[in-house]
């Protein structure tokens, strides 16, 4: 690899040859191209080379300001076996932490190394620093062959490079992956640490993408670095070109180029390490590094970990002081930082940092060559993440580089004199960096021009771009003009709840009332959590588990008790989609327009505004274009909820639901404007349709991505571990888990989507799904295959050269895939491995000529929604302008996709195949809108038809059945159960006419609806055809539903109707049983039922202006309370008062509008009670001069009761009343008997009833005297006496 | 917001009512005053003479709510088994000496417990005493309170009746009155809506459709009141004080929001007896509503 690059740089090999080779159009064995290694080996080398080259310019070497980076590089030319030991000083280590390796492919896994690694005492330990690893002699010896058992190798082990990892076994990558993600967290926290703010910010800032971990190392020197494993087998092929793949938490290892050790067991007959051979072909200049530097390094003995940390801390504080003092020029490479604008400079130019000047660019031809190679790699998708490279390029563009100080110059000059072409600092100064960057940007202009408008503006206004290439600047400005993507304001987020849907949510969907009610309750509890989370999750110290944990679990356990997980899972899923489908980041609404505004203002104003902003708000660092998967906004709630609930039933239901929904979404059909032959004719029309379909697509895509993420989250949740398990556990887990089938057949879905050309829909959500993988996941054969498939898709997805594939579609896929390949969970050995070729053929076997991939479905908005990390470019540029990190949170605007109406397949098409074929042919020649209209109308009309039939036919039938039932119940000796069955059967038979009705309904309504919706100019025959197709489809739909469901529907309706009827006439049925009781009672009962039913409507000409029941009741209550006492002397009523009260009661009872049965009964009861109190003399009446007016009053009662249904007159015969009567005056007793007699006479009270109540009197121990008195009275009124044994006879007598 | 609401839309029966919104200060004065009152008609008279400018129904509603709160607070105190036993013993011994006096009522007033609730406790004890093994079923107990003549002990029956009839906050009669008031106001609400030609679904229609928890009214076409979108209406025939407002909000309204609506709290709660100013409820039907289709205002006051 190095040899190739070297040869290129030395013009030994033609650049064009190499480019051809990279493009795969060149046979390796060609004469001009004597290299035999694969592209997969060269690319990482090149990338690392560039990273390393620029590391000096891009990073801030805060801890080793005095050291020139080239020292370590020059070492290569020396006898490394005795020098390397010296290099492994802590200082050296910390110095070069600036760059992290991006890629460490391992084409072949050496079992030896794998085993050896396990034997390493550091395996699995994340607590060892690189430094301590260095000082441990056992480290390398344990796993590398004897000749490598030197300190120098330990050094390289401690700062691994791309090549180092090419052969490292998978677990090593896992380690690193893990650490990287860990480092990420550290990164964020590091940023917030107060006093070190400035430094750490810078550190983070330039640590985009894969290099972020190093920044962390610098920020968090205290955190224990992890051990790094190396495999030396391929070291000569992948000389670790300086760039250190340091663990995120490592102290800064040297990032200088490693001397390449010679491997004794080189597998192939490749030329020996280029580093051995290069010096021979180089000008025999002595190593540029002054011996003193080396000596200085050698002098440093390995510090202990503690000492090392101390040192770092000191260095950092020193640096912090330096950067904050404007006058002091540090030889340190200075990235644009806050210090820049703190100095009060206008915008970009840092007075201390050199202004990039095209004239100062050195080694132009080499840079051109490197740029060409690099661009080829990018455009051939040979790099794992295109956008990461773009980010790197922009970093180069915005680098501030070495300040113009002696040491910088020295470094450069020294580099230029370097004997090794690979040792030269091509990107050693800011001029070269910017030059290189601009070259790449020019080359990759198409890619760049698809970035958002704001980024383009920032880029075109970047003065460096203007200085280095005015044509690029012009192009960018032009692209910005053409960029139409708008930034829409986001609507404020509310808790939109999932609406109640009777079809799934009402009682009949639950096993029991209890389950139903529990679910209702749990739903409210769930929304309560949601609200609480919304209100408080941003408060410092708020913790989901602490605040809601126990309640969530209690809720879930209640769900378990009720068994309504499926319902809750559905609610959960729907709510999730509703709240999280959009790219909503909570609270970002205020930031976003702000960023837009700034972007629009232009660089100059932006700088000023940013500086102002800086003073007000805490800046936010860049996170690089490949952040690890996260759960932004409301997603966090759902994630935390699932984690906290940790309910396996719920998770299983959710998994089922998510899977189903995902696969459904994956199948959704999207019609593109391209599919229409009439395209171009109707631009306006087409635009709108296109927009609709696009929107539908993005809605589907976003939903699928969301669901896939959660499906992945739930599926891999049980396997998530905080650390990578040890090898043994891994193997066991792999064996175990490869036996069970995965939750979703990702490979099959992927393959089918490739075949049907639907990758644009499938790949993004599969990426989301896979991004949730646990540590073991990618090692399982199944998921490894899936990842390899994605890899192949990516490698074939050459931007701008996909034939029919749309550029934006490709861009989206490249972006999401590139992201996947960069997140920690992705096995790093995979990308540059060469083996998964076998999939290629399979992928090429595309059956469908047209699919979603060929439709222009993705726009910039969707791209940025799916890949919010693309906003990092803008942040980076804005940060450059402002001289600080940007605060912008999310410029990316959200679209609010409407939920897609999924079109179900029409049923029973097979029967009329020819008809269908004809229809298809018909639609084929028509604009797609016609088809959609027809299908839509058919769907609606069919649905309406069913509703109509439910409301009319079914209702009528049930009513008829009800009538039959009532009639039959009147007959003697009917068996109700039998009756029920026979009527039900009749109804079901009659229900069959529903199909006929449906046909009629559809043919009446469908044509009109279609006609209205189609353009007026549609030709008559087309219109007629469309109408008849619509009618047919609608009829089909309605009839198929009805034929399947009408019986069930009728049965259900009938069941409830039957129950209703039986309830309304319960007494008439029970009557049959109590035949012998006497007719008087049955009379009364029948009266009562008729009274109720008759009373359900007011008297005619009722104006409903009657006293309210409540008011009247309050009045009666008042009177009664006076009657029962205690009362004062003056509390008495006039007869007139009672009369008017009764009159009002009568009025109230007369109007049914406001009267409920409960109120009616209570009112009647009160009147009876009032009568009791009246006749017993308990109610104080104002004595009037006109004598006893009570009978007249009682007459009023009688009138009232005769008009109303079943007053509880038995109260008059109750024991307390009788007792009261006996203590009453004679006239009162007379009145009482009068009342009873009247009641009997008017048929209001059955004599039987009266008779049965008399015996009660005998049970009462009344004074003899009273009984006699009453007896007399009774006789006087010819009323039966209680003392008489046979009241029946007496009754007969009295009649 | 409340100030803009017309305060003159009175209920049909209570035409004299002119002012239903009470400022908090006055509400607090009433609250303090009713603290010492008992739920009898005599005390209600006192209350009415004290605040003659307020309609009796409003005063009753406020008192009832305050009293219920009071009862809830002292519930534990009265329901301790030994306390109940003591009440029963006291009643029993008194009943021997002076059966004609309104014993239970007096006792209730003495210990500041609702007469109806006390009657319930006593009847429960009575039944337990009579049929110790069976234990009084809820149903039997309720029936006896509703129909005191069912109580085998005539004297006790009389005393119980005295309690249930006199109590103006608890008891079967009061429950029925409350029920009636609720229904009447819902009906009034429907009338108002019909008058304003607003299309709506009421509770019964919603239940028929299978909705679980339903507000009184769901508007088929949402309206805007004072700039707030209103999607459903819940009528509460009670005085809208802070406590009741929050209780309802938590127990009922959020549930509606959860299952029914697209907009946050898009509801109007009508406190038809009156309400405190500046709560999220409205008294009476708003005079100005905006509709999707017609931007004009209706004046229905």
TrEMBL record, chain A:
Residues 56-78, 87-101, 225-234, 1079-1099 have a biased composition (Polar residues). InterPro entries: Codanin-1, Codanin-1_C. Residues 305-318 have a biased composition (Basic and acidic residues). Residues 1-18 form the signal peptide. It comes from Cyprinus carpio carpio. Residues 129-147 have a biased composition (Low complexity). Residues 853-966 form the Codanin-1 C-terminal domain. This is Codanin 1.
UniProtKB/TrEMBL annotation, chain B:
InterPro entries: CDIN1. Pfam families: TPD (PF14811). GO terms for cellular component: cytoplasm; nucleus. One of its GO terms (biological process) is erythrocyte differentiation. It comes from the Eukaryota. Keywords: Cytoplasm, Nucleus. It is found in: Cytoplasm; Nucleus. PANTHER family: CDAN1-INTERACTING NUCLEASE 1, SIMILAR TO CDNA SEQUENCE BC052040. This is CDAN1-interacting nuclease 1. It comes from Cyprinus carpio carpio. The lineage of its organism: Eukaryota, Metazoa, Chordata, Craniata, Vertebrata.
């Amino acid at each position: 690899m190095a040899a190739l690059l070297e040869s290129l740089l030395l013009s030994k090999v033609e650049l064009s040859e190499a480019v051809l080779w990279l493009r795969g159009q060149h046979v390796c064995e060609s004469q001009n191209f004597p290299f035999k290694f694969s592209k997969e080996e060269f690319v990482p080398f090149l990338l690392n080379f560039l990273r390393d080259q620029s590391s000096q310019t891009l990073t801030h070497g805060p801890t080793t300001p005095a050291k020139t980076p080239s020292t370590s590089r020059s070492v290569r030319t020396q006898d490394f076996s005795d020098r390397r030991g010296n290099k492994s000083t802590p200082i050296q280590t910390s110095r070069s932490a600036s760059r992290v390796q991006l890629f460490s492919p391992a084409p072949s896994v050496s079992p030896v190394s794998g085993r050896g690694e396990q034997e390493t005492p550091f395996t699995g330990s994340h607590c060892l620093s690189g430094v301590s690893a260095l000082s441990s002699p056992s480290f390398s010896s344990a796993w590398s062959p004897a000749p490598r058992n030197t300190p120098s190798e330990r050094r390289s082990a401690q700062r691994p490079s791309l090549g180092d990892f090419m052969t490292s076994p998978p677990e090593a990558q896992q380690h690193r992956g893990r650490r990287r993600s860990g480092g990420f967290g550290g990164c964020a926290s590091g940023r917030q640490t107060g006093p070190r703010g400035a430094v750490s910010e810078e550190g983070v800032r330039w640590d985009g993408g894969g290099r972020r971990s190093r920044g962390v190392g610098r920020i968090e020197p205290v955190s224990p670095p992890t051990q790094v494993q190396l495999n030396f087998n391929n070291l000569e092929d992948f000389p670790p070109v300086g760039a250190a793949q340091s663990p995120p938490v490592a102290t800064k290892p040297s990032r200088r180029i490693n001397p390449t050790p010679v491997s004794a067991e080189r597998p192939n007959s490749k030329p020996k390490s280029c580093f051995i051979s290069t010096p021979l072909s180089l000008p025999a200049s002595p190593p540029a590094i002054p011996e003193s530097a080396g000596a200085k390094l050698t002098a440093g003995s390995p510090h202990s970990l503690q000492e090392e940390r101390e040192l770092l801390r000191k260095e950092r504080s020193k640096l912090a002081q330096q950067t904050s003092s404007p006058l002091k020029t540090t030889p340190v490479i200075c990235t644009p930082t806050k210090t820049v604008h703190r100095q009060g400079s206008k915008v970009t130019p840092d007075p201390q940092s050199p202004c990039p000047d095209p004239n100062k660019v050195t080694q132009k031809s080499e840079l051109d060559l490197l740029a060409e190679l690099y661009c080829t790699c990018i455009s051939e998708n040979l790099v794992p993440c295109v956008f990461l490279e773009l980010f790197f390029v922009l970093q180069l563009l915005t680098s501030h580089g070495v300040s113009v100080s002696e040491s910088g110059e020295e470094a450069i000059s020294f580099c230029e004199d370097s004997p090794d072409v690979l040792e030269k600092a091509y990107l050693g100064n800011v001029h070269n960096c910017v030059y290189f960057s601009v070259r790449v940007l020019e080359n990759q202009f198409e890619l760049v021009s698809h970035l958002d408008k704001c980024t383009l503006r920032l880029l075109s206004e970047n003065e460096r771009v203007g200085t280095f290439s005015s044509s690029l600047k012009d192009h960018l400005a032009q692209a910005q003009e053409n960029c139409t993507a708008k930034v829409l304001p986001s609507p404020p987020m509310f808790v939109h709840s999932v609406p109640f849907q009777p079809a799934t949510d009402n009682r009949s969907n639950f096993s029991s009332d209890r389950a139903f009610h529990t679910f209702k309750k749990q739903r409210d509890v769930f929304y309560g959590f949601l609200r609480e989370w919304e209100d408080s999750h941003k408060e410092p110290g708020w913790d989901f588990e602490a605040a809601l944990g126990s309640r969530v679990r209690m809720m879930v356990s209640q769900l378990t008790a009720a068994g309504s997980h499926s319902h809750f899972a559905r609610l959960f899923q729907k709510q999730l989609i509703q709240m999280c489908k959009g790219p909503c980041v909570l609270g970002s609404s205020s930031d976003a327009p702000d960023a837009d505004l700034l972007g629009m203002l232009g660089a100059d104003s932006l700088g000023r505004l940013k500086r102002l902003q800086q003073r007000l708000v805490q800046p936010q660092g860049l996170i690089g274009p490949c952040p690890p998967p996260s759960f932004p906004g409301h997603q966090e709630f759902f994630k935390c909820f699932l984690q906290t609930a940790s309910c396996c039933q719920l998770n299983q239901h959710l998994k089922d639901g998510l899977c189903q929904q995902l696969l459904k979404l994956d199948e959704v059909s999207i019609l593109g404007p391209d599919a229409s032959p009439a395209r171009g004719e109707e631009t306006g029309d087409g635009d709108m349709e296109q927009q609709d379909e696009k929107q539908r697509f993005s809605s589907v895509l976003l939903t699928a991505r969301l669901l896939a993420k959660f499906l992945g989250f739930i599926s891999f949740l049980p396997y998530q571990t905080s650390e990578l398990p040890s090898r043994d556990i891994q193997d066991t887990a792999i064996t175990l888990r490869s036996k069970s089938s995965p939750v979703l057949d990702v490979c099959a879905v992927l393959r089918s989507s490739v075949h049907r050309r639907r990758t644009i829909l499938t790949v993004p959500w599969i990426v989301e799904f896979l991004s949730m993988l646990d540590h073991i996941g990618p090692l399982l054969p199944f998921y490894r295959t899936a990842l390899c498939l994605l890899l192949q898709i990516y490698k074939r997805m050459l931007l701008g050269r996909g034939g029919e594939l749309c550029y934006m579609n490709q861009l989206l896929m490249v972006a999401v895939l590139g992201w996947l390949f960069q997140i920690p969970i992705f096995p790093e050995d995979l990308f540059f491995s060469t083996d998964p070729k076998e999939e290629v053929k399979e992928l090429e076997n595309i059956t469908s000529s047209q699919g979603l991939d060929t439709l222009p479905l993705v726009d910039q908005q969707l791209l940025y929604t799916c890949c919010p990390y693309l906003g990092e470019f803008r942040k980076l540029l804005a940060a450059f302008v402002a001289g600080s990190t940007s605060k912008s949170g999310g410029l990316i605007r959200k679209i609010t996709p409407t939920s897609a109406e999924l079109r179900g397949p029409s049923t029973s098409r097979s029967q009329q195949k020819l008809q269908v074929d004809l229809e298809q042919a018909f639609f084929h020649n028509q604009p797609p809108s016609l088809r959609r209209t027809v299908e839509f109308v058919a769907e609606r009309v069919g649905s309406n038809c069913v509703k109509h039939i439910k409301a009319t036919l079914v209702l009528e039938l049930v009513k008829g059945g009800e009538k039959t039932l009532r009639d039959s119940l009147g007959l003697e000796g009917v068996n109700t159960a039998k009756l029920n069955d026979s009527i039900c059967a009749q109804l079901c038979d009659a229900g069959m006419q529903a199909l006929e009705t449906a046909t009629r309904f559809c043919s009446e309504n469908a044509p009109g609806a279609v006609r209205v919706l189609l353009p007026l100019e549609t030709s008559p025959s087309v219109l007629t055809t469309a109408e008849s197709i619509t009618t047919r489809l609608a009829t089909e739909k309605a009839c198929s539903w009805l034929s399947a469901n009408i019986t069930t529907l009728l049965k259900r309706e009938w069941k409830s109707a039957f129950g209703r009827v039986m309830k309304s006439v319960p007494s008439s049925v029970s009557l049959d049983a109590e035949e012998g009781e006497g007719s008087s009672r049955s009379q009364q009962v029948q009266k009562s039922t008729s009274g109720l039913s008759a009373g359900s409507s007011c008297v005619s000409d009722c104006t409903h202006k009657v006293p309210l029941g409540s008011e009247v009741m309050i009045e009666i209550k008042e009177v009664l309370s006076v009657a029962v006492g205690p009362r004062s002397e003056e509390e008495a009523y006039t007869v007139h008062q009672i009369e008017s009260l009764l009159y009002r009661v009568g009025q109230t009872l007369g109007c049914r509008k406001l009267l409920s049965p409960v109120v009616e009964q209570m009112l009647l009861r009160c009147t009876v009670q009032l009568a009791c109190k009246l006749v017993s003399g308990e109610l104080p009446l104002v004595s009037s001069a006109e004598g006893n007016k009570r009978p007249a009053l009682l007459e009023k009662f009688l009138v009232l009761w005769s008009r109303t249904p079943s007053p509880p007159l038995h109260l008059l015969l109750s024991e307390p009343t009788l007792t009261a009567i006996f203590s009453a005056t004679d006239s009162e007793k007379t009145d009482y008997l009068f009342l009873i007699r009247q009641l009997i006479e008017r048929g209001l009270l059955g004599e039987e009833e009266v008779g049965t109540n008399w015996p009660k009197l005998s049970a009462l121990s009344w004074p003899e005297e009273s009984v006699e008195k009453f007896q007399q009275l009774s006789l006087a009124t010819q009323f039966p006496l209680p003392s008489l044994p046979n009241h029946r006879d007496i009754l007969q007598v009295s009649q | 917001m409340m100030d803009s609401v017309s305060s003159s839309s009175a209920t049909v029966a209570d035409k004299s009512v002119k002012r239903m919104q009470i400022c908090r200060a006055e509400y607090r004065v009433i609250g303090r005053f009713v603290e010492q009152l008992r739920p009898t008609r005599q005390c209600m008279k006192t209350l009415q003479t004290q605040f003659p400018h307020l309609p009796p129904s409003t005063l009753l509603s406020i008192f009832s709510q305050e009293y219920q709160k009071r009862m809830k607070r002292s519930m534990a105190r009265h329901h301790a088994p030994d306390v109940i036993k003591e009440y029963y013993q006291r009643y029993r011994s008194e009943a021997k000496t002076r059966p004609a006096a309104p014993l239970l009522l007096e006792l209730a007033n003495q210990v500041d417990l609702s007469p109806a609730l006390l009657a319930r406790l006593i009847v429960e004890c009575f039944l337990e005493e009579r049929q110790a093994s069976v234990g009084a079923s809820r149903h039997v107990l309720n029936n006896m309170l509703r129909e005191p003549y069912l109580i085998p002990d005539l004297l006790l029956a009389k005393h119980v009746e005295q309690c249930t009839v006199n109590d103006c906050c608890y008891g079967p009669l009061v429950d029925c009155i409350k029920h009636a008031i609720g229904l009447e106001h819902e009906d009034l609400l429907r009338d108002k809506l019909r008058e304003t030609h607003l299309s709506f679904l009421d509770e019964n229609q919603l239940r028929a459709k299978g909705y679980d928890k339903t507000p009184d009214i769901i508007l088929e076409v949402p309206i805007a009141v004072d700039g707030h979108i209103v999607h459903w209406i819940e009528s509460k025939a009670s005085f809208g004080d802070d406590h009741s407002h929050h209780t309802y909000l938590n127990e009922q309204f959020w549930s509606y929001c959860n299952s029914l609506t697209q907009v946050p709290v898009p509801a109007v709660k009508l406190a038809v007896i009156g309400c405190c100013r500046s709560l999220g409820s409205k008294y009476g039907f708003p005079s100005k509503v905006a509709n999707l289709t017609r931007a004009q205002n209706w004046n229905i006051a």
